[in-house]
């Protein structure tokens, strides 16, 4: 008997759960796009987007997903033939590299594999070897959505500075924005890449770039930039249409206004970060208990190097794939696939899964996912340790007790 007649739950790392308030804000007639409410509202949205990245610098909004935001970042930072140093910690580092190479950028990659964060010392070593300073920018992912590796951005910035190299630091924060702590100005980030469908709690459709004055100056000589992707009018323009390269994404903007109010003015960004820390710790506690028997393990062994928005794990012998299928067909819960961990043609592809705990998620949602996973492990007779739900509950309780 399948128990899927209630509300289904998509526990994948984007699109995340959109709050009813956000969906309701979007469910309205189209506004006047030349003057009035939406024009005034957008100025407030821009100011609040800067608060999300903790910056006083510039932000550009694109009608695009994260891949579009990658392309916009590449176009504004580089000319054809320029060099980039890319530090990859999973599938999305490789994806950004592929985009850059197809645009004519010469990418040197440092691949840290699928189980480790960026090592700042290796970044410094590569920059020291670039004695002519031909590398235009260092590209890296804050939290790789596939491996769920989280890197220390401030440490990488310090490593760049220690070499005296003028390279920009560009960070893909699609999976971490409004989930993991991020401070653009304090950490010395020049470009932050974001999107709407994860921590910002919206449907897919908006891409964002936050960029520094230094990056703005670099972009003035970038010959890859085209009229649509150019961040200068979007970030520094004087007319409303310039913010969007044409017609505004009206209904996404109404949803974004609601989500920013929820994150910044009602919950508060430090509390948002703390909530994600607590929910992540509950997921990790459950896997720690399950892993005491059988062949179950978290992909990232060091808690400091794990993203707080999504957790990748392995259940060997096809257990992850079997569990994912059981959860979707029998319990109404969809987990993320093990993206980039193995090729779909490799039997090991079915050994990986991801549990998302990003955006509009609370204790009962996360504990509910873990409880249904426990039921699936039992139903499928997958060997696993006991005490996972108790451990997860204690992690939630400790997080609540530590709330200021």
Topology:
Layout: E1 9-11, H1 20-26, H2 37-53, E2 58-63, H3 66-77, E3 83-88, H4 91-102, E4 106-111, H5 120-129, E5 135-141, H6 153-163, E6 168-172, E7 191-195, E8 206-211, H7 213-219, H8 231-236, H9 250-267, H10 269-290, E9 296-298, E10 310-315, H11 319-331, E11 333-337, E12 352-356, H12 363-379, H13 388-401
Parallel strand pairs: 1-11, 3-4, 3-5, 5-6, 6-7
Antiparallel strand pairs: 2-8, 7-8, 9-10, 10-12, 11-12
Describe the structure.
It is built from 13 helices and twelve strands. The model has no long low-confidence stretch (mean pLDDT 96). The chain has helices at residues 20-26, 37-53, 66-77, 91-102, 120-129, 153-163, 213-219, 231-236, 250-267, 269-290, 319-331, 363-379, 388-401, and strands spanning 9-11, 58-63, 83-88, 106-111, 135-141, 168-172, 191-195, 206-211, 296-298, 310-315, 333-337, 352-356. Helix 10 runs parallel beside helix 12 and helix 11 crosses helix 12 (363-379). The protein folds into two domains: 9-16 and 269-401, Aspartate Aminotransferase, domain 1; 31-266, Aspartate Aminotransferase, domain 2 (3-Layer(aba) Sandwich), CATH 3.40.640. It has a seven-stranded mixed sheet, with helices on both faces. Strands 1-11-12-10-9 form a five-stranded mixed sheet, with helices on one face. It is an alpha/beta fold and 404 residues long. The longest helix is centred in the last third of the chain and has 22 residues, at 269-290.
């Amino acid at each position: 008997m399948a128990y899927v007649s209630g509300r289904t739950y998509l526990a994948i790392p984007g699109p995340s759960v959109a709050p009813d308030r956000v969906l309701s804000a979007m469910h309205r007639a189209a506004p006047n796009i030349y003057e009035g409410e939406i024009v005034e509202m957008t100025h407030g949205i821009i100011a609040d987007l800067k608060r999300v990245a903790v910056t006083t610098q510039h932000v550009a909004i694109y009608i695009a997903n994260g891949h579009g935001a990658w392309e916009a970042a590449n176009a504004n930072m580089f000319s054809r033939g320029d060099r980039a140093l890319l530090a990859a910690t999973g599938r999305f580092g490789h994806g950004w590299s592929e985009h850059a190479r197809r645009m004519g950028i010469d990418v040197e990659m440092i691949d840290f594999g699928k189980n480790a964060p960026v090592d700042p010392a290796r970044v410094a070593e590569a920059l020291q070897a670039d004695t002519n300073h031909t590398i235009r920018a260092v590209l890296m992912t804050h939290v790789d959505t596939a491996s769920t590796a989280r890197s220390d951005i401030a440490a990488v910035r310090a490593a760049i500075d220690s070499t005296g190299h003028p390279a920009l630091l560009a960070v893909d924060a699609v999976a971490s924005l409004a989930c993991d702590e991020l401070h653009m100005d304090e950490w010395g980030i020049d470009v932050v890449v974001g999107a709407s469908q994860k921590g910002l709690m919206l449907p897919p459709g908006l891409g964002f770039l936050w960029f520094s004055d230094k990056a703005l100056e670099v972009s003035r000589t970038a010959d890859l930039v085209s009229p649509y992707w150019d961040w200068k009018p979007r970030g520094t323009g004087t007319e409303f249409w310039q913010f969007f390269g044409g017609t505004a994404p009206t209904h996404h903007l109404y949803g974004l206004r609601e989500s920013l109010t929820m994150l910044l003015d009602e919950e508060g960004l430090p509390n948002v970060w703390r909530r994600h820390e607590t929910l992540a710790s509950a997921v990790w506690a459950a896997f720690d208990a399950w892993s005491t028997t059988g062949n179950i393990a978290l992909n990232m062994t060091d808690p400091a190097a794990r993203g707080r928005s999504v957790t990748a794990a392995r259940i060997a012998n096809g257990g992850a794939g079997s569990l994912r299928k059981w959860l979707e067909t029998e319990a109404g819960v969809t987990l993320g696939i093990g993206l980039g961990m193995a090729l779909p043609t490799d039997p090991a592809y079915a050994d990986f899964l991801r549990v998302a705990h990003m955006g509009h998620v609370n204790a009962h949602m996360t504990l509910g996912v873990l409880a249904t996973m426990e039921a699936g492990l039992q139903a499928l007779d997958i060997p696993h340790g006991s005490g996972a739900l108790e451990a997860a509950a204690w992690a939630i309780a400790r997080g609540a007790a530590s709330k200021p």
